[in-house]
Amino acid sequence: MKSEMGPNGEGWVILQIIALALAGLTPPLPESAQEVPWVLIAVAAALAVASTVLMIWSFWVLGTNLQAPPDPRQGNTLITRGPYALVRHPVYLALIGLSLAWQIARANAGGMLWVGILILVLYLKSRREEKKLLNIHPEYAAYRSRTDRLFPISFLIGKRPNH
Question: What domains lie within the chain, and their CATH numbers?
Fold first, then answer.
């Protein structure tokens, strides 16, 4: 069945790659071309390490369900443990964290625009993915009602998410 952005949502993957590339390749603004303070480098390094660990953990827990397009594989299983107990899309969160770390390490205010665009693309991609998951897994609605989409705000403050 044909749908928006390709039969399996491949267009969302292309937009995601473009946003990641532009976030990574955007040169710093002239005023931020000065030496980056060590504290920003330390924050960026910590964020990059945490994001990398989150991504590897997410891949490991996701197992054979892992794929780039947002449409779930046929016969997939709903994963709600590990990092998926904190957020519904931890791989997307890890990509955002890595992009943000890169901009912080370079003190690149201009690149933050592309991080924002990446967040928007991943949010929209997750909406498509979630529509498909709701159709495949009836229990997804309950999981969605107790787990944040991209950022573990509810987990951190102890409240229920608002999808």
Answer: 10-157 (1.20.120.1630)
